[in-house]
Amino acid sequence: MTVWRTGRTASPPLDGGPALLLANGQDWLARMREFCELLWPPPAVVTLGDDGAHLPHAKGNGQSRASNEANPADRFVLVPGVGRPPLLVPQANQAAATAVRHYNAQRSPGGRLTAKLISFCLANGLGRAVPRGRVMVDVPPETDTIEGYLRAKLSRDVRLSMYLGPARANRKPVLFLLTPAGDPVAFAKIGVNRLTRELVRTEHSSLTRLGQLPLTQVTVPRVLHHDQWHGLEILLLSALPSAERRRSLSPAKLAAAMNEIARVCGLRRGPLVGSEYLRRLRDRLAASDEGAERDALQRALGRVEARAGDAVLNYGSWHGDWTPWNMASTDRGLLVWDWERFDHGVPLGFDALHYRLQVEVTPGRHNDPRAVAAKCPETAARLLAPFGVSASEARLTATLYLTELATRYLADRQARAGAPLGAPGTWLIPAIAAETARM
User: Fold this and answer.
1) Is the pLDDT of residue 87 over 50?
2) Nearest-CA neighbor of 372 among 356, 388, 386?
3) How big is the CA angle at 7 (ends 63 and 164), to the nearest 5 degrees?
4) What is the mean pLDDT of residues 76-99?
5) CA–CA separation, 267 vs 265, rounded Å?
6) Are 55 and 152 in contact (CB under 8 A)?
7) Which of 5, 377, 410, 420 could form a disulfide with 288 if both were Cys (CB 3.0 to 4.6 A apart)?
């Protein structure tokens, strides 16, 4: 077993963690320890052990409490994430089952089937059939923790589960809050550093604005609470009914939903050269780390500007990360979440291009990302036709989209964080360079 004393100077090395976690890499263990230190600050103590392992008295500030006397709300289990890092879920069977089912709702058919099996085992008291670890949080009286904070803001008793996601610069704790019986209550996004705090603030302002508009094509989460706690950015959002039965979504309906979002802040038509969009893109690129990738991207953007001539585009809004795993088509309509990249004043059609690119480069498709990126300008006319974008404008829009995405990866330092495809020089920049050469 491993005991993490919540406080950076007191955390022990990672040796000896459960086999379940070690199989998922020590990077995940390091991030889990880091986030536990933030969410359960001293004098709380988090104890991690293999399933069935005896958990000794956890100690904090001279106080102790036997593990078998712990409040059920302070007990968690770690279950396999079906190809993802493990999930930290409540020990309560129904709450754990709901958490596993929710976090895997957007997976492949095989992943969803595995998740359903794990969920069934947990819901029916068959947890021994699921490889897992145990986590116990020892919280001395009067200790301020994230659980107490969120219960106070929601004015109700809740259990929490935590999902961290794969390695990337914008990885942060995402908490799923449930009733003790397993009914969904809310989500909490936790900004833990400069980038993730900024993203949480962006999502708050975006959803606040969208919540005041009469959207007919999409349903977005409601903002329940936003504030800072112990230096962290906390955003509480309503839980969308994403686990409901899925309905097929035609390309026309998806395009209509994206069109609605594109127009929420109005459309504006104007030249690319000298545009506010191009200025902002250049500023973000200039603020990224120096290096060969930034230089190559700046040269490519310079060629776009030099050869665009008097090209005129429509500018609107975009979700910023519209993908199949950030939405669900259900009996209640199209649900869309993760609005932390929402922006306006961008060329019309960015969402459609992003959606297609991300689908094609998902690991299960086994496509060459560089080839996928190179095809983006070629297929743009078909993808952007529902937005009223001409063929010539579509090709230019696709080149700008690839540049936008590459700039994001550089500015966020995704490669340094170990994100898959986080280095734009390996796939995005060659596609941009090839397209600008033919302009």
Assistant:
1) yes
2) 356
3) 115
4) 66
5) 7
6) no
7) 410
Average pLDDT score over residue span 356-376: 95
Domain chopping of the chain, boundaries: 2-238, 251-438
- pLDDT band at residue 23 using 50, 70 and 90 as cut-offs: very low
Does 172 have pLDDT greater than 90? Answer: yes
User: Vertex 111, ends 106 and 116: CA angle to 5°?
Assistant: 90
- Alpha-carbon dihedral angle through residues 24, 29, 35, 36, given to the nearest 10 degrees: 120
- CA angle, corner 218, sides to 247 and 349, nearest 5? 105
Distances (CA, A) of 13 to 29, 60, 323, 418: 10, 18, 37, 21
198-217 in b/e form (b: 16+ CB < 10 A) is: ebbebbbebbeebeeeebeb
Q: What is the pLDDT of residue 246?
A: 85
DSSP-based three-state secondary structure for 246: strand
Q: Which two tokens stand for residue 135?
A: 């986590």
Strands (E), 9-132: 45-50, 58-60, 63-65, 75-79, 87-90
Q: Distance between CA 238 and CA 332 in Å, rounded?
A: 15
Give Cβ neighbours of residue 71 (< 8 Å, ≥ 6 apart).
Answer: 139
Q: Helix axis angle, 350-361 relative to 391-412, nearest 10°?
A: 60
Task: Say if CB 224 and CB 207 are below 8 A apart.
Answer: no
Q: Give the mean pLDDT of the chain.
A: 83
Which tokens sit at 212? 């005041």
Question: Which tokens go with 26?
Answer: 């020590």
Q: How many CA atoms are closer than 13 Å to the CA of 351, on its beta-carbon side? A: 32
Ranges 3-17, 263-277, 366-380: which has the least confidence? 3-17
CATH architecture of the domain 251-438 equals Alpha-Beta Complex (3.90)
Distances (CA, A) of 226 to 179, 189, 339: 21, 10, 15
Answer whether residue 349 shows pLDDT above 70: yes
Distance CA 128, CA 131 (A): 7
What residues have CB less than 8 Å from 17, skipping those under 6 apart? 2, 29, 48, 133
Q: Distance of CA 73 to CAs 28, 178, 189, 410, Å?
A: 23, 11, 20, 41
Q: Which residue has the higher pLDDT, 201 or 5?
A: 201
Asked if 168 and 422 touch (Cβ cutoff 8 Å), the reply is yes
